[in-house]
Design a protein that fits this description.
Blueprint (H helix, E strand, L loop, with lengths): L2 H9 L4 H7 L4 H9 L6 H11 L3 H5 L3
Helix pairs in contact: 2-3
Length: 63
């Protein structure tokens, strides 16, 4: 599980649905990223980083 991603999303008060809409991906795709089933592409990492005001390294590489 990408715990840092989930924590950042919750701190922003966003549901998976809300965040996925913000970055223009499906909720299923987001859920798979957050659960660790799917590795996001670089552009999706960048969108998540921007939406959550958190560096990519903190979201995906510091667990």
């Amino acid at each position: 599980m990408r715990l840092n991603l989930k924590i950042a999303r919750i701190k922003k008060g966003l549901s998976q649905e809300e965040l996925s809409k913000m970055i223009d991906i499906s909720r299923t795709t987001y859920r798979n990223i957050e659960s660790g089933k799917t590795e996001p592409k670089r552009n999706v990492m960048e969108k998540l980083s921007e939406a959550l005001d958190t560096p990519i390294m903190d979201l995906f590489f510091n667990e």
